[in-house]
Structures are given as structure tokens and as C-alpha cells.
Amino acid sequence: MKIGVISDTHLKGFDETLKRTAEAHFGGVDLILHAGDLVEPGVLGVFSGRTVLAVAGNMDSRAVRETLPGKRVIHAGRFRIGLIHGWGSPAGIEERLLEEFSSETIDCLVYGHTHRAVNHRKAGILFFNPGSPTDRFFSSRRSIGILDIGHEITGSIIDLKDGVS
Questions:
Q1: How many domains is the chain built from?
Q2: In this structure, is residue 165 part of a structural domain?
Q3: Domain holding 65: CATH number?
Q4: Which string of b and e fits 137-153 if b means at least 16 CB within 10 Å?
């Protein structure tokens, strides 16, 4: 199973560049996760016909926050993925977010907020942040990600150039 992962799109609606990025990199995925800060619900239109699970972020409009949960747990094969956006300083964010799932066992924590790509394990949990495909302010790197589900759960970050690579 392959899962496309995206976060922090920060767009007010449908975007052709984001659509081309999704078509180029998420064409063969079984599921797409959006870790928040869509801003407006129309952004999800770039994934038309695809199954997308998303959470609301701190910069999302009222329409998004009323429609999407703040966090969720996704079952993928034998693994459980915690999906959340994040808040506050990047310092200590993984510990704060992991605490949000303290009543559940998760194998992977997918988050956003920092606009910085992360793909590492700590205490048996894969921490995965795809970065942002659109940001040019907080990070010089624009990126999305893929989670591969097999005997284990692994992630890879895809660097983008001019929105599409």
C-alpha cells in the first residue's frame, strides 16, 4: 500500500500547479493524507476521484474547521497512523503531538505545521512531516511525501522544484 502525504498547502482554492504535483507523484497511491492548513475546502478538489483523509490546521478557515477533525487515526494494513497538524513552536512539537495520541497506540505520526520535512524513527514510531509544497517563506525546500506500507511502514520525502518535479 502507498499513501501520498501532503500538508500546509495554504491555498484559497483549487490550484493548477498543486494538481499537476498531485498527478505527477500521487498517481499510484491508494490514499492521500493532508495534515492540515488547507485554508479553504476547495483545495481538496485537486485530488478529484481520490480518497483523501485530512485534518484541520491552525490557519484553516471556519469552513474547514467545522468539516474536518483536529486529529484522527487511520488504519493502514496492520499499522495505525496518527494524523494531526500541530501548533506552537517547532521546538518540542513531536512530543506535544505524541501526547495527543497517548490513549491510543500508533506506529506513525504524520504532522505538518513546521513546513519542514521530517522522516525519522524515535522509540519505534515513525515521525513523518511532508513539509509544504507551496511555502517559500519558512523553508527553502518545498516537498511532499509517500508512506509505504508493507512488512513495515517507511516514508520518503519528495523534493519539488517550481511546484512540480
A1: 1
A2: no
A3: 3.60.21.10
A4: eeeeebbbbbbebeeeb
